[in-house]
Specification:
Oligomer: single chain
Helix content: 25-40%
Radius of gyration: 22 Å
Structural class: alpha/beta
Number of strands: 20
Shape: globular
Largest sheet: 9 strands, mixed
Number of helices: 12
Distance between the termini: 54 Å
Number of domains: 2
Bound molecules: pyridoxal-5'-phosphate
CATH class of the largest domain: Alpha Beta
CATH superfamily of the largest domain: Alanine racemase
Length: 418
């Protein structure tokens, strides 16, 4: 099967004799070797997406600009290192993400600290590390930053604005609407920018309107909401660019998304602004797949087959949180579709459903299944429900597989006991 028909699998995926290869590595052999569940990542796809975004910004924006990796999407040292090597900056939303970004080699001045509930300790950590940009979300941030800065010091900041834009996406990942918990109302942001706080060097405004946005119009609306605010040298337009979760999804992609954002910025904000974008999902989602091993198969009267695998809501919370829909295949029979089956996890609740009624060939215990597009918010949201150790992350490139995060051990489940 040529690579183009494999979407939404990684670009560096192929099918040979019905078997899935990721970065030239046989998925079933890999599952046997490293165990399952396992996150398998095509490293070349990570690098290709980073280059796509950098090229798009260079092409469509006439002025300084920066592409940041929103690290929440895949907060893993190896992934962060790839993006640092590719020349991206980094968006962090907690002390933990900041710790990871610094350790992975991002220059502190290329890091932006976000968050609607930053603690004083997190702000102090950022200040002491020399983080380049602090994105203030609320009045308490202003006060806390004042308390952690040395006397007389001034700090370069952006102000997060709530543009009041309703983008079309799941309610849980909509963030730019008027009732959002994130950011200052535009009038309030303008007041802060004009107030001349001694400890704030307000360089610009930021918004992030939501995630998995297929329509680019809300970005234009959000930029328009910044027009009445004081003119600034820096504007960060956030992330949120959609990715295809199925072969039928038509996401705009990096080029069209960045073109629309840059055009809106030029028209509304003027030429020569420093433009920052913060893709998370769209840098990592399609690069990753998850491998599972079937543990049992049931046929209920009048219902679909129920295929139970060795992972579930501990390695992919998105179906439970956002009703996210995933494709599933048998990794050694990628072209076979079969009758509808529901793929459930091993966790002790009925909501633990990874894939609802999707075509799947006859499978039995021991077979390896694959779900694509798990590079974003899979590892990030992994948890230990039912005492399940978190899965490894395996990078594959040019036929070589390399474990970059090993599987958690049972001992680590009680490693914090006092
Ligand atoms: C401030 C900010 N920037 C960027 C992102 C990345 O969003 P996405 O992964 O949808 O690109 C998020 C996601 O929550 C965010 O909160």
């Amino acid at each position: 099967m040529p690579a183009t028909t494999l979407a939404p699998y990684p670009e560096a995926a192929a099918v040979e004799d019905g078997r899935l290869l990721i970065g030239g590595c046989d998925a079933v052999a890999l599952a046997r070797e490293v165990g399952t569940p396992a996150y398998v990542v095509a490293e070349d796809d990570l690098r290709a997406r980073a280059r796509d975004f950098l090229a798009a910004l260079r092409t469509h924006h006439d002025g300084p600009g920066e592409v940041l990796f929103a690290s929440k999407a895949f907060p893993c040292t190896a992934v962060l290192r790839v993006f640092a090597e590719e020349g991206l900056g980094c968006d962090v939303a907690s002390g933990g993400e900041l710790h990871l970004a610094l350790r992975a080699g991002f220059a502190p001045e290329r890091i932006y600290l976000h968050g609607n509930a930053k603690s004083e300790a997190e702000l102090r950590m950022a200040v002491e590390a020399g983080v380049g940009w602090i994105v203030l979300d609320n009045a308490d941030d202003i006060a806390k930053l004042g308390r952690v800065l040395p006397a007389g010091a001034r700090r370069r900041v952006l102000l997060r604005v709530t543009p009041g834009v309703e983008a079309e996406t799941h309610a849980a990942i909509l963030t730019g609407h008027a009732a959002s918990k994130f950011g200052f109302e535009p009038e309030r942001a303008a007041e802060v920018a004009r107030a001349g706080w001694d400890h704030l060097d307000v360089q610009g405004f930021h918004f992030h309107i939501g995630s998995q946005l297929f329509d680019l119009e809300p970005y234009r609306e959000a930029v328009a909401a910044l027009a009445p605010l004081p003119d600034m040298p820096v504007y960060s337009l956030g992330g949120g660019m959609a990715v295809p979760y199925s072969a039928d999804d038509r996401a705009p992609g990096p080029e069209a998304s960045v073109a629309a954002m840059a055009e809106a910025a030029r028209e509304v904000l003027g030429d020569g602004k420093r433009l920052v974008i913060e893709p998370g999902r769209s840098l990592v989602a399609n690069a990753g797949v998850t491998l599972y091993t079937v543990q049992s198969v049931k046929q209920r009267a009048g219902g679909p087959r129920i295929v139970a695998v060795d992972g579930g809501m501990s390695d992919n919370l998105r179906p439970m949180l956002y009703d996210a829909v995933y494709d599933v295949r048998a990794a050694d029979r990628m072209e076979e579709r079969g009758e509808p089956a529901t793929v459930v996890g091993k966790h002790c609740e009925s909501g633990d459903v990874l894939v609802r009624e999707a075509p799947l060939p006859e499978v039995e215990a021991g077979d390896v299944l694959v779900t694509p597009v798990t590079g974003a918010y899979g590892h990030a949201m992994a948890n230990n429900y039912n005492g399940v150790p978190r899965p490894p992350v395996v990078f594959c490139s040019a036929g070589v597989a390399r474990v970059v995060v090993r599987r958690e051990t049972y001992e680590e489940l009680h490693a914090r006991d006092v």
